[in-house]
Design a protein that fits this description.
Two copies of one chain form a homodimer.
Chain A lengths: L6 H5 L2 H4 L5 E2 L2 H4 L16 E3 L4 H14 L3 E4 L16 E4 L6 E4 L4 E5 L4 H9 L3 E2 L12 H7 L6 H4 L6 E7 L5 E5 L11 H5 L8 E8 L1 E2 L3 E8 L3 H13 L6 E5 L1 H10 L10 E8 L4 H14 L4 E5 L4 H9 L1 H6 L6 E2 L5 E2 L5 H14 L3 E7 L4 E8 L4 H20 L18 H5 L2 H12 L18
Helix pairs in contact in A: 9-11, 9-14, 14-15
């Protein structure tokens, strides 16, 4: 990790931008913002600032822009591609204190600060019988601002969509400190360019999101879930593409390979899932039709050689999901001293899901790596996690080779290099292949909205001659 | 209507850009592209070109850009805000011949040319049991390119979303003739800036859409519909906001005021709807739970003083919607010699729906105008149609005054100046009020992507000092 000196001197202007006590130069504080949840190398910022209001965010950005000092927005720090690492030093701007929540149940929307944590929002909404629904794994850490930044999604996107599909309005501060309302608190509009949608997924490189209005859905009255095992990953993944192709709209449909199940069983003392390729299927409804849908889902699974169907009791469904949410920790603790080299994240057209699952399996064998796979399969989204001995550089290199091979295959299949984790540092090198000419347009938009390049430099858009 | 001369001389380069027979300079042809479906004043283009391929579109744009000649893309011409009128003359580029359809049923998507007509696509998709679902009124004319241009939607958006929510990938040609793929054929991605979403709703001012991949949904197995009458518009609109707020997700929920019903009855010999404020509620499901939902919808209507509930036989549902789709024609023929001054289109947060309905009613009375209202009420979207004697300038002016008053009220209520018709010429003057600082950003993006300003000039973005 690089270190900085003279930070206080250079960034002293921050005291004028925010209230007392909202800037820190101490190494002990700066170190907390040097790394995110990804395996990417950290970098110490020169200062950390946590504004109390949108106006303070604007004052920080305006002053930093005048001085051409990099500003990296920080939400929950749960990013898996180095999205929030201050790659060029400068200022980390955390939105943690922008944490107000205002719910309009009649409009099915909530207006929340960028620093509100996903699970906290849903806990707050429960009293109204409502939910913000993308269903992300890291919901205990990730904030609304970060979810907008990466267009995050997760378990429930197959029914309810990505973060993008829920955002009605954003309040954003530009690089030069202008406060901009992007969109209106309505469910639809065709009033010009959707800046809101341009900002979503831009990872703080075009502006800093300070407030979000998100649409909500009702908590489903009925939920049914089942753990379904198959003889092979291929059978399981074909069952998924068949279910989606038949226009079934599950609440979630999650794929877990044999190795993932083994890791979950090892991590949880009280868990004993069958060690087989598994789908966790959940259905949502507000009426009794759910039983008919469940029977239909089972029929599809039977068509693909289903070996077992274990219906979950309604009161156990959340526990099963919590077990799945612990997958990352189950993986890291599976072999003492070994670490997760990276968390792969690709998405393909659903009919190609069996192919991308096979590619991970083949690459793991070819490269002699312990790789486990899970995925929000209904969206064609697959995660894969090679475990490595961090002291074995050659093994770490093989893990990255696996990632490159799988991403290339996903792109070849018409897919995308990242389904929900964003580009950050880790996926920049694939952007030229994924976007082609579109990347030139993205670059020109970046130059237009952030001409001095102060916003989260080193992220999303690769340098003009690709790395 | 203004006329042009020397068109052939100025635009002769077009023969080099497209195949023989794909350019026209004859006044008889140009006149067909001088006006769209809106009441806005037409303008003759200098030439009309209909490219046979994306490459021809690129050749036309590249050559026009070199010569700084305006190009106005033309889709179905069904725009209601002058969206496709060649306001600065120059070239009209029609995408009508980009009409290929390729369906991938397993991926639940279709890749279609910009010139494909909405109803034709859905007819084609029916063999697969699938639908492209926004449900627009002018589906017999509107094309996919035009729907992307205005982010169109309609009856079924309340359940399935606007065009934006369905588009997975766009092929777009930039002002200077570059062919750009925006997005991938996947249901979700977080790979950088969503150019796709920036283009959607930009009405051909940032690029010309040539091909679209749209997501599809299954044709629902079960449909139920009912015509429900209420003692007042307020009761009807409160029932809508209550239904949506209770997280019911109807397939459609359409509001029609007393005057609209009167017009429909007069237009259709075989129709005899009760002349009362009416909701047309439709439910969709793939299981028997639909009856439970229907009973719940009826309960909500009863809570708001429902006077009658007439269930439609399943085989009649499409006929009822067809009657509703004829509303525009029913309005224009209601009083011989009178015309529709404009088709209003605003959207508000759903809890404010009763207020905006009331505003139209009050303004109609205050201004002594015959105004009928319909609306995709579940989205908070309201259309209003003042009828005027076109020779009575003062009356026409009153109709525009009504529109300004209603749009201002919608904005005051946190709504948007246009729900689904786009900005075109007619709504430009409201953009400064709706967007504030965001408009400056839109302008800078326009300047970046179309530096010579050749793409559909005079639309969407108002001149720097507002009209």
């Amino acid at each position: 990790m690089e270190t900085q000196t003279d930070a206080e001197y250079e960034c002293g202007f921050l005291e004028d931008a925010v209230e007392d006590g909202r800037v820190a130069y101490e190494a002990s504080v700066r170190e907390q913002y040097a790394e995110d949840a990804s395996p990417h190398a950290g970098r110490l910022p020169d200062a950390v600032v946590w504004p109390a209001s949108t106006e303070e965010v604007a004052a920080v950005l305006s002053a930093a822009n005048d001085r051409e000092i990099p500003v990296t927005p920080w939400s929950g720090g749960s990013g898996l591609e180095g999205n929030a690492i201050p790659a060029s030093g400068g200022i980390v701007l955390t939105t943690a204190d922008l944490d107000q929540i205002s719910v309009s149940p009649d409009d099915l929307h909530a207006t929340v600060g960028a620093g509100v944590v996903y699970d906290d929002l849903n806990e707050h909404l429960a009293q109204h019988g409502l939910r913000f629904a993308p269903g992300i794994s890291s919901g205990d850490i990730a904030t609304l601002g970060g979810m907008v930044a990466t267009n995050a999604s997760g378990f429930n996107a197959v029914r309810y969509g990505e973060t993008r599909n829920h955002v009605r309005r954003l309040e954003v501060v530009t690089a030069d400190g202008r406060i901009v309302e992007c969109g209106r608190d309505v469910v639809k509009t065709s009033a010009g360019y959707s800046l809101k949608d341009l900002i979503i997924g831009s990872e703080g490189t075009l502006g800093v999101v300070t407030e979000v209005t998100v649409g909500l859905v009702g908590v489903p009255e009925h939920r049914r879930a089942a753990l379904v095992t198959f003889p092979s990953r291929e059978d399981a993944s074909r069952a998924v593409s068949d279910a989606i192709g038949s226009a079934l709209v599950p609440g979630a449909i999650e794929f877990m390979d044999r190795m993932s199940i083994r890791m979950l069983n090892a991590y949880h003392d009280d868990l004993e899932f069958e060690e087989q390729p598994t789908l966790l299927i959940e259905l949502h409804a507000n009426n009794d039709g759910i039983e008919e849908d469940l029977a239909f889902a089972k029929l599809i699974c039977e068509d693909h050689g289903m070996e077992s169907w274990t219906a979950a009791a309604e009161e156990n469904i959340d526990d099963i999901w919590q077990a799945r949410r612990d997958k990352y920790w189950a993986t890291t603790s599976y072999r003492e001293e070994w670490e997760v080299a990276l968390v792969g994240d690709v998405v393909v057209p659903i009919s190609n899901y069996p192919d991308i699952v096979q590619e991970v399996s083949d690459a793991g064998e070819d490269l002699d790596l312990t790789v486990s796979c899970v995925g929000h399969a209904g969206d064609g989204n697959l995660h894969y996690t090679p475990l490595v001995d961090p002291d074995d550089e050659e093994m770490v290199a093989r893990a990255h080779e696996l990632n490159e091979r799988v991403v290339s295959k996903a792109l070849e299949l018409g897919g995308s290099a990242t389904g929900e984790h964003g580009v950050g540092i880790g996926k920049r090198k694939f952007m030229a292949e994924e976007h082609g000419v579109a990347l030139d347009l993205m670059r020109s938009i970046k130059d237009t909205l952030d001409p001095k390049g102060i916003l989260n430099p080193g992220k999303v858009i690769p340098e003009p001659s690709p790395e």
